[in-house]
Design goal:
Length: 519
């Protein structure tokens, strides 16, 4: 049997959110611009200007003949993306918008489709946000220098099939009559980057194998100062078994768990104060201690160094290559790029602390007090059970943790290796990128991805962009974008979304170029 409202889930989830709440702060993890997101999310052989600092610094040497010597961007680029196999819109529409009662075989079918049959199987959702408040470029015929400030936030939430069973089934002793994995992992971090990029031409050749002329190979590097802002993580590993829980009997709940929370700053100090008061026998309530403050997210909590680097080769093709008619009439170039981005690690050193709890406990139920239910909870049994669970389990068991002080929490940047090409044929362009993350963190995925995109420029002013991205952190996504590109001014926007989320989950993305001027 089961209770429709999952009181134990309320305790687990509430405790986790109190300790670590990413919402308090406000793909692949490659830097995206309005142009690149419209072209399938590539750009390692395409994106120039100050954004090249974060994609391929060698591209600072591209397109010198199209613009004046100086570029300035104010609010020079905003992008946000989210995705992952936890965001399964297909399953949501199949089961949660049709009025079905989610129990028994219906719950089995839904969760099998969403998570698979293994109760320890994990599904994740990730997000990535970045803002470039200011960026600038100075172009010289032989070299280019660029500066840019980027604000970034990234996070990832993961839950096991067993955790989802607890959400949708409640305290269902028919299902939880054997131990099920109720696991979760959460991580959120935010930081600032101050990047200085430099690129130059390292090789020239007048003619290349009869394919074209004026071969140039550029190399670029962009070291960056990393100023850490906020960090929090939670790792919960547990097994849950429930026996005989009903509205008349609390039954028996066995929960073997081990969790670790890592955080910094005022949040760490508040958790430590709670722990000290608990050890002093004051019977504290955790939610009375956590008081988010804007300073938790705006200050700098540590410093470190990172770097982005790359190499780009460009060849001017013969005028008659790929025909010289219609949309293919005009300059023809082939560009190939290779980049390694986000090398380094963040250091969160302001009051860095870890909090850990582990227990194998058995709880033998609730004293069913009908008078209290009627008088204090208006006859709502679920509210009564939840209140008792909060008092008897929430603080005494899950809130009974140990603390340790760390010199810092070190979080590796979402390093990525990519190779790409861009073929420009007059007003028409084709782009292809292949890449993979070196670590699985945030929206970064070690699963190989392929980005394909094309661009056509009406009157050489209005770009129409379209693309597709396969692999990486989500199902196949489709991309589109447009804008206005003049010699002294440009403006662009791009969007992305997935059509089918059932296998690898949904993904959404959008980017805006900000105000970019050349003079």
């Amino acid at each position: 049997m089961k209770i429709k409202q999952s009181s134990l889930f309320t305790i687990l989830a509430s405790f986790a959110l109190l300790l670590f709440n990413p919402s308090e702060s406000s793909g692949q993890a490659s830097h995206q611009t309005a142009g690149t997101i419209g072209l399938g999310g590539g750009g390692v052989a395409y994106q120039d200007l100050y954004h090249a600092n974060f994609i391929n610094p060698a591209n600072l040497m591209l397109n010198h003949n199209r613009r004046p010597h100086i570029t300035l961007g104010v609010v020079g680029g905003i992008q946000a993306r989210s995705g992952g196999d936890l965001i399964n819109i297909s399953t949501y529409n199949d089961y949660l918008t049709t009025g079905m009662t989610i129990e028994g075989t219906v719950a089995d079918d839904m969760l099998n489709q969403w998570f698979g049959a293994n109760d320890a199987g994990m599904r994740s959702a990730a997000m990535d946000f970045s803002l470039v408040p200011v960026g600038a470029v100075y172009r010289n015929p032989d070299w280019t220098v660029s500066i840019a400030h980027r604000i970034r936030a990234s996070g990832k939430s993961s839950f096991s099939r067993g955790f989802a069973d607890l959400v949708f089934r409640g305290l269902d002793s028919d299902y939880f009559n054997q131990f099920r994995a109720v696991n979760s992992a959460q991580e959120y971090y935010a930081w600032h980057e101050f990047s200085v990029g430099f690129a130059t031409t390292i090789y020239r050749q007048d003619r290349f194998m009869g394919l074209g002329r004026n071969l140039r190979i550029h190399a670029g590097i962009a070291p960056k100062l990393l100023l850490s802002a906020d960090y929090g993580s939670l790792s919960l590993q547990s097994d849950l078994r429930i026996e005989g829980v009903s509205a008349e009997s609390g039954g028996e709940i066995q929960h073997n768990f081990n969790y670790t929370v890592e955080t910094i700053g005022a949040r760490a100090a508040q958790l430590e104060q709670y722990n000290q008061d608990r050890q002093a026998g004051l019977d504290p309530k955790l939610d009375d201690y956590l008081d988010p403050d804007a300073g938790d997210y705006t200050g700098f909590r540590g410093t470190s160094i990172g770097v982005d680097m790359g190499v780009t080769a460009r060849l001017d093709l013969h005028d008659n290559a790929f025909s010289n008619l219609g949309i293919f009439r005009g300059d023809k170039t082939l560009t190939v790029g290779l980049s390694l981005t986000d090398l380094g690690a963040l250091s969160f050193s302001d009051n860095a602390r870890s909090f850990n709890a582990a227990d194998n406990f058995t709880w033998n139920g609730i004293d069913y007090d009908q008078e209290t239910i009627d008088n204090d909870f208006d006859g709502d049994e679920s509210a009564y059970f939840e209140s008792v669970l909060v008092d008897s389990i929430g603080n005494d068991v899950y809130g009974n943790f140990n603390t340790s002080t760390e010199s810092s929490h070190s979080v590796g940047l979402p390093t990525m290796l990519r190779v790409g090409s861009h073929l420009q044929l007059g007003k028409f362009g084709f782009m292809a990128d292949i890449g993979a993350g070196m670590v699985d963190r945030g929206i970064n995925s070690s699963r190989l991805h392929l980005s394909l995109g094309s661009e056509y420029k009406f009157f050489n002013i209005i770009p129409l962009r379209a693309g597709v991205r396969m692999g990486g952190y989500s199902s196949t996504t489709f991309h589109a974008g447009t804008g206005v590109e003049l010699r002294n001014f440009e403006f662009s926007l791009g969007v992305a979304g997935s059509a089918n989320s059932q296998n690898r989950g949904a993904a959404l993305g959008a980017a805006w170029s900000g105000i970019v001027v050349h003079f």
